[in-house]
Structure formats: structure tokens, C-alpha cells
Amino acid sequence: MNKKWEYIGVDDEKVKDIAFNHNISEIIARVLLNRGICEAEEIDKFLHPKLENLHDPFLLNDMEIAVDKIIECMNKKEKITIYGDYDVDGITSIATLSKFLTELGVENDYYLPNRLDEGYGLNNNALDKIAKGGTKLLITVDCGISAYEEIEYAKKLGLEVIVTDHHECPEKIPEALAVIDPKREDSTYPFSSLAGVGVTFKLIHAISIKLSLDRKRYLKYLDIVCLGTVADIVPLVDENRIIVSFGLMLVRETRNIGLRALIEITGYTAIDSTAISFGIAPRINACGRMGEAEIALKLLLTASPEEAKEIANKLNLLNKERQEVEKSIINEAIEMIERDKLYNKDIIIVGSKNWHHGVIGIVASKITELYYKPSVLISFEDGIGKGSGRSIEGFDLHEALTKCGDYLEKFGGHEMAIGLTLKEENFNAFKTKLEEIASETIDKEAVPSIKVDAIIEPKSINMDIFASMKLLEPYGESNSSPLFVSKNLKVESVRLLSNDKHIKLTLRDGNILLSAIGFNLGDKVVRLGDKIDLVYALEINKYNNTETIQLNVKDIKKSLN
């Protein structure tokens, strides 16, 4: 599929000024400007994250109330239960708070709902169990902001509730003892994009300040906080950038026995945000998707190296199982789409009784990426369909679902990703309605775009550029690895790999030879002697103890001149 290359124009003089004043290369200065990082103080904070720039946790609404209550429970020896979510963000949130409270001598337990049986968030059956177990205070992490009715029920059971969450707030927030969420309408907190575990971190930060504890008492958990922050794909800017920058240092030397065992089994030697995103996080998420999230939580809480190794192996096997299930569903979904020519629709909607609903969100993402159309996949069981959807730029999938309310039991999410539940008998009517909305809304000419950071000459591609690019790390949401364009490169060699799936190129610009690889670009027609333009990220290729520069190609076009 053809892609649109989007160039962001920035002032050349401004680039030179920033490069000179901050002692950085003009390429890095250009990247910063492209990403809206323009002022001197802002640039300095971005390039040189400092723990001192973490925001005051007491700026969060209700933080003082929450901290005082937790300390009261500690002094009265009252039991606290932590209620979380089954993804990496939720699991790391529980682990962080539980370990911190345990170290303070606070009796605490946790509740982790089963994704397949209970679904997301608080439920009354769980609250019954928690109340019967002698809990006085319930603390939600990475959930709770929409649980108005459930929290009212908890209060009737005699539970006091503190909500810590980071999701968008509904019009009516729960009437809990404290509601800590940087996205509250009345919030004045300087940064609203913390992950759930980031909010949990601010809570233990605040407790530490209140008890006059050494800052090491809360900073030592940044390895776990970093893991959840990267996995939840929140913007790696401002406070998240500080958390992940220092957290990655701790992850590399982690004292968490479980995390260390998991790192070892992934095979990653260089631990960065990429290793977390593609190696560590998927293995933890696999547990939740397959209905066994508690295993991953036990891994982060265990003090036994033997148990850690055993659980890490289990997570690895669950991830492989998840991959096989995912592959099967993708193949079946594509077969349905191609058979019924659903790619001609403005939105792709498919359902089956054979799909594991714990993984259909991943599959929806891949279907949307493959066809560049919004997609909704639904798994049916006992007359009830549970679905996940993903969208494309310009189509608000959540808003579209609000117009389909007559056919849905419940739904939630945001513009680009949704979850829903409906009765099987309503599927066809829902499908027809959503297709109508998409047909009226979606731009038929829309194509995926690639945002380019800078056009650079091949002569500037050297090892020095990597040293300067280190200043931009860690990479992640809202701070991706820079993408560059180079033009009029002559194709010296071309080779297709993996059954013509990938393409490997040698390119020439004058006396300069460049090695390039394009994953999933085997369909691009490239011949010897062609002049081509490339969008690419720069990477180091390590082979036989030798490091060479490689262009990781994202798109290819024939040169126009």
C-alpha cells in the first residue's frame, strides 16, 4: 500500500541555534523541533532527565486523604486489599504497592480478576470475597474510575475505597474516600499521561514523603514501574520519560528475582524500551490474555530464585500458546475477509464462535494494519459476543459505537481502540449500523502516513550520529526512533528473504555504500540500477563481533529526478 510521507518544516536558523546552545548535532536539534520541544528549559529537561524534576505527588487530587488513610491502617494494623487489572500495567501496579506496603509492615492482600470469567474492573462477587476476608481498606490500581455502582456496593459492605487510576474520567466519578486520577476534570497536576503504575508510584512517593523516608524506599521500585509504563504505551515524555530513563537503569541491574528470571528467558542482552515492549511485556500480558494473570504477579512478588525460574518458563510457554492461538485467528479472519470481499467495506467486522476473546484485540490491530481499515472482531460464546476493535486516523471508533448503543450490552475505550459486549442475536443489526456510520464518515482516499523527522545526506550517516541519538532515548509512544529520508540512492544489489517477504539492499551514493533491510517490503519492485528514495530508521547491525550501520527501511519510492 502506498504511504504518504509527511515532512514537518522547521526553521533552519532555529535548528542551528538549538544545536549550538545545547551542544548537539543539527540532526538532533531538528528532531526536537519536529516534536514540539522548542524552549531551552524544555530541551534541557528532555535531553537530561533528572529525578529532581518529578512532580510533587501531593498536587494530585485527594492524595493527602489517601496517604493519611493508608498510614492510619498501618498504625491500626488493619488489612488493605489492592485490586488491579490483568495487563502489565495493572500487574506491575499491584506488585509495586504490595511490596512497598509489606516493607512498611502493612498487612495487605491483592485481587486480580480473571479476564475470561470476570472481565475488567471491579465486580460485586469479588467485593463480597474481599469484605469477608477482613479487609478494611480497598485500593484500586489501574482501574476504578468508572466503577461508580460497584464502589457504592463496596461501601455498603463496610469497605472504605481509594481509587487510583489513569483512564479518562466519566461525567460521574465514584464517591470513594479518595479518587486519584491525573485526568480528573478538576486536576491541576502538571502531567496527565501517567500509566496506572505511574499513579501508584506517585502514591508510594507521597507516603514516603509523609513518613520522612529516604527516597531510596520508593525509587527502588522504578524497575517495575518502568516495565508497566513502557508496556502501557503512554507518551514517554515529561514525568514518564524520567520514570523510564532511570527505571531502565534499574531493570538492567534489577534485584527483583522474578524480573531477572524473565529477562534471562527472553534472550535479550541489551535491555531498553524495545526489549520491554517486544520481549518482557508480551510474556506478562500473555498470562492475562490466557486467563492466568496471577502467575505473572507471583513472578514479580516471589523471593525464591527456583520459583522465579519455574514461573518464567511457564510465562514463556503461555506466550508461545498465545502466539499460536493468535496466528490461527488471524488466518481464519483473513480467509473470511478475502472470501466475502470485506476489504471493499469501509470497516471490517467479523465474528466467530471459535476465537479466544483474550487475543482478538491483538488480531484486530493486525487486521487494521494489513488492510488500513477500522476493524472489529467478535468472539461468540453461549449467545454472547465479546469484541475488540481498532481504528485508523480520522475515524473515532468509540464515538461511532455511541450511535450503536441499541445493539450493545456495554462498550468502552477511546478513539483508536474499543471493547464491546453484545447479544449474538443483535450482531447483524449492529454490523449494518456500524458499516453505515463508517461509510458516511471515513475518507475513502485515506492512506497511511509516515512522519519524517529529517532529510539527510548519506555522508552524514556514521557512528557519531548514533552517539548523539542516544540523547533521544528511551524511545516509545510520542518519542519514536527518528525516521529519516535519503534520496536518489542507486541500487547496487537486491535480495529477497524469507520467501520474498523481506528485501535486503545495497545502495550507493557516490563513493558511499549503505546496507539496508526492509521487513515486509518484499512486494516493492526494486531492480539493479534503480534510483530510489527511502524512509528509514538507523540501527546497528552486530555480526561476528563487528558493528555496522544498517538502514531499517519503512518505505521505498522511485526517485523522481
Write a structural description.
- With 561 residues, the chain is α/β, with parallel strands linked by helices.
- The protein folds into three domains: 4-48 and 450-558, OB fold (Dihydrolipoamide Acetyltransferase, E2P); 53-220, Alpha-Beta Complex (inorganic pyrophosphatase (n-terminal core)); 340-441, Diaminopimelate Epimerase, Chain A, domain 1.
- The protein is 41% helix and 21% strand.
- The protein has helices at residues 12-22, 26-34, 40-47, 63-76, 88-103, 124-132, 148-156, 196-210, 216-219, 222-231, 238-252, 257-266, 273-289, 293-301, 305-339, 360-371, 397-402, 427-441, 463-469; strands spanning 4-7, 79-83, 108-111, 135-141, 160-164, 178-180, 348-352, 375-381, 384-390, 410-413, 417-423, 449-452, 454-455, 484-497, 502-509, 512-518, 531-543, 546-558.
- The strands form four sheets. It has a five-stranded parallel β-sheet with strand order 3-2-4-5-6, with helices on both faces.
- Strand 15 (502-509) and strand 16 form a beta hairpin.
- Helix 5 (88-103) packs parallel to helix 14, helix 10 crosses helix 13 and helix 15 (305-339) crosses helix 16 (360-371).
- The longest helix is centred in the middle third of the chain and has 35 residues, at 305-339.
- The protein is globular.
- The protein starts with a strand and ends with a strand.
- The mean pLDDT is 92.
